[in-house]
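Worked Example 4.2. Read the sequence first, then its structure tokens.
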Amino acid sequence: MVQRLKGKRFNRFIRNINATPAVSKDILHVKINDTVGLELDYDNTAGTYGIDILELPFYDNSKGVSNYSHAYPPCLIPTAIRLMKDYVEEHGGTFQTLRKYERENDKNFFEYFEKRTGIPYDDLIMYKP
């Protein structure tokens, strides 16, 4: 299992990714731009984060593009967020254009993540600590 970040390390992690805690410290919100945000959901069993793309404002989380909740270890979260920002900008920069792109092209962030990092996405979702 990936070691859970605690105390000062967790606080530094939150600052580094520019996140705000939501209803608990297990759910973090990161604003990408005026229409797109990310929700990071901590999995206590695996010690990893899931990522969901949401339309802002955060309080209405029924408006998600896709669920990317497949075992991002904390060390990859800053990279995933940076790539997610690029991904959103490259596909119109708004929640609506991103949703349209994904629906029409049957593409998701995981393909973009794999292409940009060289890390096989299946390695993330199949990883067992």
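Now turn to a second chain, presented in exactly the same format:
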Amino acid sequence: MSTTAENPTAETAPEVPLPPAPPEATLAKPDMFMPLEPDSFKPIAGFPAADLRPLPAVAKYSGGLANAFVIKANPEYKWQGAPWHMHHLNVHFNYIVKGWALFEFEGVGKVRLEAGTAFYQPPRNRHRELDASSDFEVIAVELPASYPTTFYALDPETGEYRATVIDAETEGGELTNVVKVDEAG
């Protein structure tokens, strides 16, 4: 956290005492502030073209009701895209911070999302990420914090899709366990 002492050019606000606290008031805690650190971004297993920055205070302090994270492209790898998939969640909101990405959504088709674009993705909407710029960065907010995802793999021999459900568990916003839940033909 930046303070006036650390940032002498910051304007100082006049001291104003807090009014009496209502019964529903909640105190802020130091770990609710998540500054960017050199190791904040972690590689995404099986997807080297992007790195993930968990924002664990969201899941922790919402009691698992919500999760938030930042994904950014890893410029050392070419974005390979992702298969058709859908997240079994209630709310999925995204804001493109930098660069661009090409997505395909069931219902609207291909959409190029540029920096500054915000979008709400409906629950259980099948989609895929096709391409992204080397500087792509997105902030995502999801409810609940943990949820299963169904991936659709095309069988080249039969021409049919195979659906596999994966449940990714989180603890305090950190990915802790990935479990294959179900496979349907």
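Notes for the reader: The chain has a mean pLDDT of 87. Residues 23 and 29 are 18 Å apart (CA to CA).
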